[in-house]
Please model this.
Amino acid sequence: MRRRIHVGGVVQGVGFRPFVYQIATRAHLRGWVMNTSAGVEIEVEGDPDALDAFVHALVAEKPPLARIDFLEAHDCSTDGDAPYETFEIRASVAQEGAFQPISPDMAICDDCLRELFDPNDRRYRYPFINCTNCGPRFTIICDIPYDRPHTTMSRFPMCEDCAHEYHDPTNRRFHAQPVACPKCGPQVWLEIGAEGGRREAEGDEAIRAAQELLKKGKIVAVKGLGGFHLACDATNGRAVQTLRERKLRVDKPFALMMRDLETIEQHCWVNAAERELLTSRERPIVLLERRPESNVAREVAPGQNTLGVMLPYTPLHYLILADDSMPSAIVLTSGNLSEEPIAYKNAEARERLINLADAFLMHDRDIHIRTDDSVVRIGLAFPPDKREVKRCSGGASVSARVYPLRRSRGYAPFPVRLPLATPPLLAVGAELKNTFCVTRERYAFMSHHIGDLENYETLRSFEEGIAHFEKLFRIEPQLVAYDLHPNYLATRYALARAQGEGLRAIGVQHHHAHIAACMAENGLSAEGAVIGVAFDGTGYGDDGAIWGGEFLIATYAGYRRAAHLAYVPLPGGDRATREPWRCALTWLHRAGIEWHTDLPPVGAASAELGRIVRRQIERGIHAPHTSSMGRLFDAVAALAGVRQTVNYEAQAAMELEACVDQHEPRAYEFALGETARQGGEQSRSGGAPLLIEAAPVIRAVVADVRAGVSIPVIAARFHNGVARMVREVAHRLRAQYGLNEVALSGGVWQNMTLLAKTMELLQADGFGVYVHCLVPANDGGIALGQAVVGARQGGS
Ligand code: ZN
Ligand code: ZN
Ligand code: FE
Model:
């Protein structure tokens, strides 16, 4: 009997065909297997029982990096054909218009790591060792199907030994497209930037020279998997400070790389879930609580009690760190100037990083698409919900949840499965932490992290990224979904493209997109409705105001704004985002409290500036209305004396969270007004929303500040108060709309303290709570929400 099998999912570049070859020959089946641009095609001959066992084994024993999304098998006739004599692996065939998911880049596997440090292995200390179970994928792929000529490895002809391994189906490197060795593959070298790129050393010598520079406190640009990093000794405060000054990065935390798990445990507290995440093939940066005795320089993460740490993930990283004389931790931050995208081409890096790095550890394996490191955090000890544990921790027995803060290397372009079918569509995302997404059928291909779309370099990276994704996944969008903010560069791009190509354009309100993203990744059906709690810093509202403290009754098709923080004028507009004292003054004004200089934010402003701000507030000049929860956090942080100005987004709120006294039980109380109307804020669907008044909270904060209550207690009472307010409003909306499901999204929910407190209260009251575990709660997840809303509104 002969059977034809089609397998779809992540099945290319992950050792799938040799795996098929092995299980087929093991069972003495004959036939063939081949890659197509739609997946893997198999034909096998044998008796029916053996064929059934074969299909079962395909799923049950699949290789570690493979993901099977569907499998179709049917018996076919052998009329007239001669029976197959062997089982063979046939050449790839491209199918017009077909597509299939591409594997993300994966950390070096244990087998390769063993060979890397085995003096008898022919790849001993070779920085580009890899196999079908590990190594670069997404960053080196130029087109599909995934074959060597379609990767940046095409310029390295394999030597005889490598070719032998590549063609041997029983070898771990069978059809490993990036396979290489010291004889035939890419090489590393060290350049001294200041000396016109003079080559100082090559190969192992170059790595040792880089180590010596790092030990001396120098800054070395290291070419990695998805771009250049800037490295320095993390235990050397002066080196870290120099890096800050050169990068123009005042105090935003730097990521660290440490040699091994034991080293990480000397610097940070690590639980089982975090350990699993640190050592996973994705190797993200994991936010960990710092141990007080750690000798990592304070300059690495000023004002924070966490450190962002990752383990080595390329052979080159292992070679740099695996040496007892090296510092136990190195800073490994993206190779760029402040807000620009990460440098990823050699010539570009020389040009852009010349004043940042003392030397460059270069190599000649090109990176086709730049990809930053991913950042995740584990949130602990919420009452376990079986479904979420299964979905979020990859099936392992972990009672903690993974919260992505930035989904990029190791995860992108792994698709998110959608709960509804979509037409080919492009969702362009938001302005900050931009990611975009293209969809096809039930797949949403979320892009890698693009960055803040505020400069030309990043915009170009965004446009090139979109073109690359459309090509890789064979998607010609019919629809383009975008944020309503008229000044977002992504929005302008979307509208220009829609006009130029005659595409249908669908504007999606920012907070609706947040909630829809959360619904979609949790698999809510097309008809599902939730109480969406969207808390963030900034999002353009239907009425032109800046929203950000929103309760939406949401489906994919639409939403009703059911409740929100009462509006305050934001004196100075965008400036208030960088100057929390402005937020404090406007809230003091609303709460009817005089601006006395005993209050830290009043003291921070000069009398002259105070007068200007008062005029802005009272006359509404350059003071847009906002319901932003992020700005309320800023106001409280400023009033408590945590910080008056910030150097990066959400810094004040993060530092306020870091202060929270976990044992403080009391809470500040919000007032829930009845449906009073403020000027021009009727929701789109009519019916006035419930107003949430924070003035009583501000009055209580001021009373505590004046009574000398400590910052940790004030911080705790504020967090407790917001959590209780969410429960209270959710109760009212449950009674009003008969909904029991709550979805939490928006950047404010990256605050683990607030999230834990809120979830505890909601779950204790019987609410079903949805949170993010696949895409970030911040604007990095917006594109997914735009996609599902666009698909629902424009699909039929
Ligand atoms: Zn490997
Ligand atoms: Zn070779
Ligand atoms: Fe947002």
Summary: The longest helix spans residues 711-737. The radius of gyration is 28 Å. The chain is about 35% helix and 20% strand. Residues 158-159, 161-162, 180-181, 183-185 surround zinc ion (ligand 2) (CB under 6 Å).
